[in-house]
Amino acid sequence: MSAVAITFFVVIVGITLFITFWAAKRTKTASEFYTAGGGLTGWQNGLAIAGDYLSAASFLGIAGAVALNGFDGFFFSLGYLVAYLVVLYIVAEPLRNLGKYTLADMISARFNEKKIRAVAALSTLTIVIFYMIAQLVGAGALIQLLLGMDYKIAVLFVGVMMTIYVLFGGMTATSWVQIVKAVLLMIGTVIISVLVLAKFNFNIFTMFDQMKTATPLGENYLNPGVKYKNPLDTLSMTLALVLGTAGLPHILMRFFTVKDAKTARSSVVTATWVIGIFYILTIFLGFGAAAFVGSTDIIKANAAGNMAAPLLAGVLGGEFLMSFVSAVAFATILAVVAGLVLSGASAFAHDIYGQIIKKGKATEKQQMLAARYASISVAILSILLALFAQKMNVAFLVSLAFCIAASANLPVIIFTIYWRKFNTTGAITGMLSGLLTALVLVAISPNVISPEPGAAIFVGDPLFSLTNPALVSVPVGFIGAYLGTVLSRNRDEKKFAEVTVKANTGLK
Questions:
Q1: CB-CB neighbours of 118 under 10 Å
Q2: DSSP class of residue 168?
Q3: What gap in Å lies between CA 52 and CA 26, rounded to an integer?
Q4: According to the model, what pLDDT value does residue 470 have?
């Protein structure tokens, strides 16, 4: 690795540690640890949301997917972008008005029972662990490629860094690391996009015209069907992306870091603009990599295409730009895993320890200790699992996280806010049916069982044909919540009226 690259990496680590040191002085209470005391402004939280959402999978994975698969790679960009409209119009405002620290707080605003909080915490921890393993395994492989560092050392390094951010700086440090990372990511993406467009004389029509002959796929490069040949599989994956975002715990937790629903809405608008611009620019990253790096060299560096963006930066801007882009990718990984640790620790320390075991009577000191012990526990568990999962195809872990979020969390969030007859039994059956269906279907899908040796964990014929089960598990989650409600007799329409007022006005 060159001196320039080392300098960029050291600067990134130094900035994030300085932020943590600064944030540690402002993190004395449980509220400051979990939600930065609700003190972020709309634009700050918007950038932090964008930072949480634009993971390494977005920056590196989508650029590579567009470069290698053309239009089919752009499907991911469309799914991630449309997902934020669901968050903006359905979830953001009522979630902020009803919740406190976690998703379970929001549901408990209507159904204040321990078993619901326990199931919600179980769903959150399941999503966080699967998502975290995928991020850490991806981080290890990426840093191994970029820095030549051993996989295990890379995972341990990322794990230690994310633990430091959360342990000492809580949500304040995590948020500002996300903000810095989001700004750097947008700067890098815009620079590369302008350089790519310059190669096509700043004419988008010329770019699309030349891409018809720039890759081995010919004109098919600009048409759907190159990678995803099963329409149901494509529909299922898109459904998981579009609906899953509104149920991801580390995204939902961000709406509690602002003072009111109005600020929550403005933060989603800011995030949607940043995320929207980024995903549109992935066209230039992908097209540029396909035209000026070439699919052979991209696949040679990484079969999944994850090195497409850094390689393109090297071709267009030399060692300096490639080092900068690689350092930004590193910062991206650190920021996302820190957010995941925090959301997992909140579910355990606040929901299970604070509200169930201590019955909501834990002192401020006990809450802070529990949060920090939970952060260390979640980090150690994730690091250990990631070390053993090095050779596993982790793509299904991400799809599973989105699937569970869409199948277990989203139906309960929507029914809690909008369905008068919804009750405790419906909330529990909805979450459990969505969670278990997603887990079982993924376990028997082509991600786990494949006739091709080495393509999955087991060799054989999969029992379920879709690689992402959202097309089945999301309806099951909604049906489970509906049946649980209508088959039981519990009703509390007075409580629903109270929750409706709170959700729409923020009055406590």
A1: 16
A2: H
A3: 21
A4: 92
